[in-house]
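Open question from group meeting: does this chain pack into something compact, or does most of it stay loose? Before anyone orders reagents, we agreed to write out a predicted structure and look at it together. Recording both the input and the output here so the notebook holds the full record.
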Amino acid sequence: MASTLPPEFADLERFADWAVPTERARYAKRISSSMGELQAFYDAAFSRIDDALAYLDQFSVEDSPDDAKHLLWLYCGLMTASFPVEVWRQPRVPDSGASSFDAIVEPAV
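Structure tokens returned:
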């Protein structure tokens, strides 16, 4: 399988399925993940967040190479996974039933 992330982030490649460009896809990934999977992703990605921010600061959003875009999307995924890990201890929003939300506009990358 070809690498989708910059070589400096090869240790996060096992979480490349979180590098998706839309909020809806990240939310679906969160809902379909177990807490063990969310926790493993959170622990690995959060520990590299400073490195990722420094790496991504080299590029404008519009001119990022594909591997940097995937890294950015992976960290958008981390934000999607953070509340279940840090607050709720479950993938879904507590006491929300079947509620969902849709982003009307996604950032252009």
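Observations to bring back to the group:
DSSP finds four helices and no strands in the chain.
Residues 66-88 form the longest helix (23 residues).
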